[in-house]
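Notes, Module 5: Reading structure tokens.

Key idea: the token line is not a picture. It is a compressed description, and you learn to read it the same way you learned to read a sequence, by spotting repeated patterns. We will look at two proteins. The first is printed below with its tokens.
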Amino acid sequence: MDLMTDPSNCSMCGMSCMNGGCNAGVCAPPPVQLLAAAGGDLLGVAVDANRVYFASLAAGTGSALSVNKSGMAPLTHWTGNGFVWWLAVNGNTLLFTMPGAGNVMRYDLSGTSAATPLASGQASPQRAVIDATRACWVNVGTTATNGSIVCATLGDGQVTTFATAQSRPGGVAIDNQFVYWTSRTSGTILRLPFTSPGTAPSVIALGQVAPIAIAVDAQNVYWANGSGTIMQAPAAGGGTPVPLVSAQTGLFDIVLDGANLYYSATFGAMNAGVIRRIPTAGGAFFTLAARQNYPGALVVDATDVYWRTPNVGILRTAK
């Protein structure tokens, strides 16, 4: 055993570099792979057990596409005028938002029928999430105060507006009982039970700085602030938010896989972005990919993390 090169015992016994290498006793990030090229300044990416889904834009024509996890067997799930912004997938349902057209689209991955609107007439729908029974999304709105939080049940397609008059909502997350979201202008983190649409939301945190991305697990809610801090607080509310990591300029997205939280940050310059992992219990972050050009949305599966780089495509590295 060589503590200078052994990735399972890097610098000391039991110090694992996960899927990275060990160079001179220091863990190095795993290699980054370009999985699929895609044009356009678009940010969404989704993943299921077999495929990776993403958007492309060329000469005004948008597309929702996918490849298998070897970067092969490309499929076009939708193409037309306008652009696809965010994607989410669960089971046989691929969901994607189209801010310009005001549509939230649904595509049945098990069939051959065309994608159809799950909801239309939405005010700039952007980030979205989906589980086995429902999809939820944020309508950023057309003014500073007419954003909304909307959900739809997948079985019957019933669309329900949970909150209106929202100040530039940013991210949205769901669990079995609640929908959670961030309000960028007011700096609040909010939630509502699925049984009480249209009622006053519970406030999880106040005084945040332009919070955007949000994620939730069984105990906590996590969000990314425009000030470069990722915060966490009890999902039930009543607790004091605490920082998980700070000084991460240009945070864009966060995602959980249980013990770890993954995030993308641009650091405000070309080729200065990073993809990082940090334990949800606290501790130091580990850089999975550096020198990324404005990395956007990211997702994870059992082994890898995937993210979108505008005008380049979908990249992947081991978790």
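Here is the second protein, with the sequence above and the tokens below, as before.
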Amino acid sequence: MKCLISKIWITLIVIFNYFSCYSQWNNIDIENFYWSSYKPSICFLSADTGYIIASNYDTKQSYFYITKDSGLNWSQFDTINNCIIKGIECKYGFNLSYGTNNDEALVIIFENNNFYNKRIFQIPNYKVISEVNVVDPNNAVFYGMNADSIYELGLLTKEFDSIKFTTLKTFGNYPIDKINFFSANQGYYSIQGDLYYMNSNSISQKSSNIIDFDFHSLDSGIVIKTGGQGSVNIYKTNNKGDTWEYSTNAWISFNYVKAVMNSNSSLYIIAYWYSSGGADAYISNINLLNNTIVYFSPISLMANPPDGMDLYFFSKDQGYFVTHLGQLAITLNNGGLTSINELEQVDNPLYLYPNPCKDVLNIEINSTKIYDEKSIVILNTQGQIIKVQDLNFYQNHIKIDISDLDYGIYFLSIQEENSKYYKTFIKF
């Protein structure tokens, strides 16, 4: 009886997620997006104009994409060779990206809100800049590794024709997990699971044993801690972490959690459970006023978090989630009518129907490059191979019986010459 109830509950969740969420999104293609091991970073200069930078760790090339319609359409407009971009920041008119170039830190400053007009600076005293918080029109707090392989927290200052670096604190061989700074000398950082508040006079510990944290203002923030049995506990503060109030418990299995506050009352959490074959990503929106949780649909990612994604909010209502596979989620109303939708890969030859499906899944293949030695593979959200079906020579219509699959979300994969394509489907 308990098993039957569980199956009914899973079915209801799947059907609810599909009809209330998936159907409300249109597929958004990122033109010429390179499907490989990239770290995408996203930012917006205005509600309409935004940028994505994706870096190839193998070829050390970074690709720039632009949208001028709030993320509905994207196109590539620039490529930079011999560099790996770690992130991008757009605040107060101080727009920059950062990373490494041949074991030397790299900072790219974009002038006059124009990403076509850029200045590239090599930083000889640093190997890499890993994270940057722009705090005013001329200053940004950063952390990275210096030439002696020592982790540092520092201040980057934009000058007329150069940039200046000032060390704020050194950490030896202990890497910083995350920074949240609101001025040149006030903010938060975490290291080895401990949260600290720093100002010009002192450093004080505010919490311990945290998985992640985020502050929307200098006073208001949250920490996430392990809750036991595949769950996390969320605690909130409105007094710089002097006291913490228990908010809620989210029942999610995870290997990695990322939290982003898009307002003092709203928190988004991405939780990953991943293996060598792929990852599940669950997005939750938590109302911090009444401590309620809204779960969005899980999505299957062939990614390796945290390098495979970025979550970004331009405003309270306008947010974006992008993965290195070109999956993109957009909310324009603080998640009120939104969810995750898998973007179609450019020229993806696969078409599945019906979707969701109960018994027989039809697969149309619009390609002449798929050979008879190839197979269609169905994987679950843990990356485990569930079913394999061989293809006949130039076969373009296949039927697969999925009636024996458990309820849930799966993805189908097929190899074509030099590319690997996939599609997500729901079994109900």
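Summary for the second protein:
- The mean pLDDT is 77.
- The radius of gyration is 23 Å.
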